Amino acid sequence: MHSRPTDEWQPAHGFGQTVRRPVERRVHAVIALTIVTMIAEVVAGWLTGSMALLADGLHMGTHAFALGLAALAYILTRARALDRRYSFGSGKIGELAGFASALLLGVSALVIAGEAVARLFDPRPIAYGDAIMVAVIGLIVNLASAALLGLDHHHGHDDGHDHHHDHHHGHGHGHGLDTNARAALLHVLADALTSLAAIAAVGLAWMTGWLWADPLAALLAAAVILKWSVDLGRQSAGVLLDRQAPEAMRREITAALESDGDSRVVDLHLWSVGHQAWTLVAAVVTHGDAGPDDYRARLPGRPDLHHPIIEVNRCLGDGPEHG
C-alpha cells in the first residue's frame, strides 16, 4: 500500500479541450444571422407569394441545422473534456461533427447535380427577377457568414509547413480553424458558390434565352462542393482513425528522443486527439540509464503534445550499435 496520495503522478486529462475558442462565438453569430435571414425570407415569401423566397428561406433551415451541429460539438467537447471515460479526451467530437458535415455537403452536392441533370434534359421557364433577387440575398448573407468564420483562420493560421493533403499542419502553434469550424465555413461557402453561379447563369439565360446555362452552372458548383466534401471527409476521417502525424513532426520527435547519440526509437505512434492536440507512444532502446522521465524531458516544448508514454528498453550489448 502507498502511504501517500498518488495524485501528483497522474497527468492532466484536458488534452487542450477545456478552453472556449474565439471561433465558437463566431459560429453562434452566423447561426443567428442565418436564422434571422431564414425567418425574413419565409415571411416575405408568404406575404408576397414568392415561391423562390419561400424555398430559399426553408433551404436556410438546413444550413442552420449544420451550423447548430458545429455549435453543439463545441459544447460537448468542453463538457466532456475532463471525463476520464474518454481515454484521450473529447477532442474528436469536433472531428465527428466535421465528418457528419462532410456527408451532408456530399449529399447536397449530389442532389444539386441530380436536379441540374434533370433540368438539362427538361428545361423549365425561370422567374428571372425572383431568382436573381434570392441569389443576391443568399450571396450577401453567406459572404458575411464566411467573413465572420474566416476571421480566426486569417488571424491565426497554423504554420503550414506540412500540409499533407489532410491539412494537419506540422506545427500547431497557431489558432487556425479546426475541422468543426472549417466544416461550418464550407457550408456557407458552398451556398455562396451556388448563389454566385445562379446570378451568373440566370443573368446569361435572361439575356440570351439559353436555359441550359442555369443547370450547367449548377453542375459545376456541385462538382466543386463535392470536392470540398471529399477533402473534409478525408481530413476528419484521418483523425477519427488515428492516422499517424505528418512525417516532419515524427522526425522532430524522433530526433529529440535520439539526441544523446545512443538511444534509438524502435516504435513511434504519434497521432491527433483533437484540434492542435497530439499524443504519442514510443519505444526506445538504449545502453544508458535514462528513464521515461528523462526522455520526456527531451521532447520539444510543445503545448500541443499531451500525455506522452515512453517505454525504455535496455540494450545489453557492449557498444552503441543497436542493429
TrEMBL record:
The chain crosses the membrane at residues 27-46, 58-76, 96-114, 126-151, 184-206, 212-230. Its main location: membrane. It is found in: Membrane. GO terms for biological process: intracellular zinc ion homeostasis. Keywords: Ion transport, Membrane, Transmembrane, Transmembrane helix, Transport. NCBIfam families: CDF (TIGR01297), CDF_efflux_DmeF (NF033827). SUPFAM superfamilies: Cation efflux protein transmembrane domain-like. It is a multi-pass membrane protein. GO terms for molecular function: zinc ion transmembrane transporter activity. It comes from Tistrella mobilis. This is Cation transporter. Residues 28-241 form the Cation efflux protein transmembrane domain. GO terms for cellular component: membrane.
